Amino acid sequence: MTIVTNTETMTNGSIAFVPGTSRLSAKSAEILQAVANTMLSQPSILQLEVGAHVFEGRRSERLALSWARAEQVRDALIRKGVARSRLAVKGYGDSQALGCPVDLADLVSRHQPVVDMRRADAWSPFAESTYLLGTLDERCKASSSENTRISFMVLKQTPDSKK
């Protein structure tokens, strides 16, 4: 989980899904409750974006899956008492990679030519740019095996809470 408040980012835990679906895994309950508790105890947070980044499956399906996963997280937070009006959702697909998806790690480890990598479902413009800059290999080595990231970003706060 990533929470961005003003310019500060905090990462703690992760939200998991049944592979290839938007169904939340049971192991996500604790972190979802923590986010709900934060929202319920901080009325100064007027709107929070739930963003989903997906790096699994066919490239053509990643954007739709990311939207579905963001909506599932939002719905879970609503069930925990957070007002719908305080939550926005955004599916990013694989357009803003965080770390390195597992399928890209495999492509990099095999050192395929860029022309071959472009045909792979794992490839994206972001991956190509980081590969050509020589930083994709580092990102892949440092990455976890997760292929979905859920981010939380405060979009609106009351003016006195930004101090």
Report on this model:
The protein is α/β, with parallel strands linked by helices. It has one domain: 60s Ribosomal Protein L30, Chain: A, CATH 3.30.1330. The chain is built from six helices and five strands; from the N terminus they run ββαβαβααααβ. Strands 2-1-5-3-4 form a five-stranded mixed beta sheet. Helix 2 links the parallel strand 3 and strand 4. Helix 1 crosses helix 2. The chain starts with a strand and ends in a 6-residue tail after the last strand.
What is the average of the pLDDT values?
76
Q: Roughly how many Å apart are the termini?
A: 24 Å
Number of strands: 5
Going across the biggest sheet, name each strand in turn.
Answer: 2-1-5-3-4
CATH topology title: 60s Ribosomal Protein L30, Chain: A
C-alpha geometry: elongated
Radius of gyration: 17 Å
Name the helix and strand elements from N-terminus to C-terminus, one letter apiece: EEHEHEHHHHE
Helix content percent band:
25-40%
Enumerate the spans where pLDDT stays under 50 for 5 or more consecutive residues: 1-12, 141-145
Largest sheet: 5 strands, mixed
CATH C-level category = Alpha Beta
Describe the structure in brief.
The protein is of the alpha/beta class and 163 residues long.
Question: What's the layout of helices and strands?
Answer:
Elements: E1 2-5, E2 8-11, H1 29-41, E3 45-54, H2 59-79, E4 87-93, H3 102-109, H4 114-117, H5 125-133, H6 136-142, E5 148-157
Parallel strand pairs: 1-5, 3-4
Antiparallel strand pairs: 1-2, 3-5
